[in-house]
Amino acid sequence: MFKLLFMLLAFCLIYCGGAYAAERGVTNTSRSPHVKLRSVDIRDVVWTRGFWADLFNVCHRVMIPNMWRLLRDPKISHSYANFLIAAGLGEGEHHGPRWHDGDFYKWLESAAYAYAVTKDEKLDELMDEIIEVIGKAQRGDGYIHTPVIIKQRQARSETREFKSRLDFETYNMGHLMTTACVHHRATGKTNLLEIAGRAADYLYKFYKESPDKLANNAICPSHYMGVVEMYRTTREPKYLELAKGLIDIRGLVETGNDHNQDRLPFREQTEAVGHAVRANYLYAGVADVYAETGDKSLLDALESIWENVTLQKMYITGATGALYDGASPAGSKRHREIQLVHQAYGREYQLPNITAYNETCATIGNVMWNWRMLGITGQASFADILELALYNGVLSTISLDGKEFFYSNALRRVSDLPLELRWSRTREPYISCFCCPPNTVRAIAGASGYAYSISDEGIWVNLYGSNELDTRLADGSRISLAQETNYPWDGKIEILVKAPENKKFAIMLRIPGWAAGASLKVNGHSSTTDTQPGKYAVIDREWSARDTIQLDLPMPARLTQANPLVEEVRNQAAIIRGPLVYCLESVDLPEGIEIMEVMIPRDIRLHPRHNSDLLGGVTVLEGKAEAFQSDSWSGELYREIEPQEPQQINIKLIPYYAWDNRGECDMTVWIPVR
Ligand SMILES: [Zn+2]
């Protein structure tokens, strides 16, 4: 009863103009004591035209309905059928992976994001219908996990909860909690939040009774983020106690391993190891706990791990988790300590291209982690990684039509690879392990929530894309901006202040790390504001309606090399323009030339040309390169180089996110340079 009153109070604060604005962000950091930047409400930013508006439109009109079609058709996915059976509304057994409930919640979260912006009534009705089923599937004590509930409903007495750490119960319940918070923020309703509250209460009780067992079951720990978000939504103190405890009890796991990041207590960890999805979810969840507690030992570990990832273990696309299978710690002198890992971070600088694992969920975990680090620190370097991973690592995982998906994400594909990899090397309409596709869709649906932040100083512009912002500053006063740009194709951004009138506050504009020579104008006059790349430019003045800011981020194509210790790309370059990593596909090469034969001169001049008819409209990069044709290899491992004059060829590069949309062809991000 007390809890219900508490939730009602929170509801009134949010919806009756209470003291706390911005409680409806992708993360609700409106009252987090240890953040510098706070989220804006998800419905306060609307993409208006261009890249992100088009993408959001495909998300709302195609991705979300298409995925609902997949998830509700038992012949394709048993995900919704599992809920119906668990609810007593259907017959049969549980089918599909044990984390399938979580996949379903992620899709539901994307629907809630879409509803927040579109107010699509059909989506709202559909969500209510589904939530009723989820509610009926829940056990009286709050436990909800369809594989176990279905068996218990069918009176199979031997079935117990938390029997195996690979049952993914906490993963499923964590996604339920996050989805419930987003659904509540989008709709104002509490129907899913009440279900998630019962699940959180169940976890709290389980934490009190069997902390070691709970610690052992923290696999892909989405519940760290979920429980913190439940605390932020309901202000129920025991959820914060639970969130803190969930990190502390990781040290109780007796058979911990690097694969699950629990060989060492979290605070003793300094590098990213093991399963990259589990790792990135863990880091994002710990960042959430820091935001509420200010426990410096957590932030110290996170900063050390972040440096390890971004300086030694991350792909140029923002993807992480290089290895299909490997050993950890790799090459250790203490041979007996080495453990097997899979879909994992490798050793430092181990970044293969053709066999890059790079599970989509790990990239999304990287986005979520960097978003939280940005909030904690206000440092643009985190927003830079967020943007890099979003445009390149995340968008490349879904086809342009919104209906096909990658599970693992290579940076090179060659047709004559003589080994079978675990996952398809082309996108597929359905993947038996369906964790990634709904993760991508919810990331796209909610991306507008990353575009701006608020602090006591003013408003922070994190991402660029034509949009309208209508929100409140930290003091509660209204601010309205209109952003006009062709970003990411063009670095010119214009921001029109629509409100307030005659008010002093700062507008912070992110100058990406790549944007050397950025310039700013305010009301048409050049500004002396510092526009150092990798920082936020701060314009602190009295603003009035009709004031304008013009930001120009130069976007030359940049030939980029990796640290020489990345052996797989020695003497190769990746081409980046603005936030987009480019690639070469064999369909764009002259007849008879293969991608492995192409070499680019160091001084190549690459000309951007926008082609609105290609791949949904992309800016391609065109230039002159060379090809050294080689006879096909007939199985030998080595052979002598024959003298050869290079052939001059024209090349056309496309953004990496748009690759594999023109049939199966070879592709490479890295190209040899001379
Ligand atoms: Zn996944």
Describe the protein in words:
With 674 residues, this protein is of the alpha+beta class. Helices cover 35% and strands 19% of the residues. The strands form four sheets. Strands 6, 17, 18, 19, 20, 21, 22, 23, 24 and 25 form a ten-stranded antiparallel beta sheet that branches. A hairpin with a 2-residue loop joins strand 13 (519-522) and strand 14. It is globular, with a radius of gyration of 25 Å. The structure holds zinc ion. Zinc ion binds at residues 359-361, 435-436, 439.
Q: Can you lay out the helices and strands and say which pair or pack?
A:
Blueprint: H1 2-15, E1 38-39, E2 45-47, H2 50-72, H3 79-86, H4 100-118, H5 121-137, H6 146-153, H7 169-187, H8 191-209, H9 211-216, H10 222-234, H11 237-248, E3 274-275, H12 276-293, H13 296-313, E4 323-328, E5 339-345, H14 360-377, H15 380-394, E6 412-413, H16 436-445, E7 452-454, E8 458-461, E9 467-472, E10 478-485, E11 492-499, E12 503-511, E13 519-522, E14 525-526, E15 535-543, E16 548-552, E17 557-560, E18 572-577, E19 580-585, E20 598-599, E21 607-611, E22 618-627, E23 647-655, E24 667-668, E25 670-672
Distance between the termini: 72 Å
Can you tell me the overall shape?
A: globular
State the share of residues found in helices, binned by percent: 25-40%
Largest sheet: 10 strands, antiparallel
Number of strands: 25
Bound molecules: zinc ion
Which regions have little confidence, pLDDT < 50, spanning 5+ residues?
8-19
Q: How big is the Rg?
A: 25 Å
Rounded average pLDDT: 95
The total of helices stands at 16
